[in-house]
Amino acid sequence: MTHNTGHACGTPDGSHAHGPGAAPYPDFAWDDLYTGDGSDTAAPDLMLLAPAESLPPERALDLGCGAGGNALALAERGWRVTGVDLAPRAIASTRASACARGLDDRVELAVADSATWKPETTYDFALSSYALPPRGPARTATLAVLATALAPGGILALGEWDEEACDWGAPGDLATLAELTEAFTALGLDIVRAERKVVPRIQHPSEDHAVIVIARKPHDTLESAG
Questions:
Q1: DSSP conformation class of 37
Q2: Assign residue 158 a region: left if phi > 0, alpha if psi is -120 to 50, beta otherwise?
Q3: Is the full-model pTM beyond 0.90?
């Protein structure tokens, strides 16, 4: 289910009180994490955004955008960004921050579950910043959405907490490097870089262990031959 809100300063529709993507997460109220007014829009994750620096600013996707820190940083660099999140208040915060920064003409937003959202175009850069569903059908579908959304030659940057190093999280909540690289390879992407790193925890004065995967969607054989 998708509720498109259009450009960031469009009038929101409040009909989805708990987010249309809430079904895969019945025990967690994601909306409660967000203020909805933009005050929770965090600084961007510069490490995950770094691969976009080598690309001309075209169209970008932030799947699981939260309060919009990464999406707005891309918009400030000239990208036209689609931000998707299942929490309506996350999208409301992204919208408020985009409007405050004069970026509403570069940001389109949708309240949607990452596992079922259908891209209407392709993207030159796609981002998933610590936003994957737990391991299972929803995660598998979300990874497929990311791969499908990429244009030929497009780059994907994904960060997730490292299941093999973190001492928190329920089984299946976090991810392994092997799991992600194998999934993206099976989806037809080329792995550019895959590593385990200690990274800052956004909005927390601490560090934790992450897996970072940078992948590229190859041009098809006929296009490459031409």
A1: S
A2: beta
A3: no
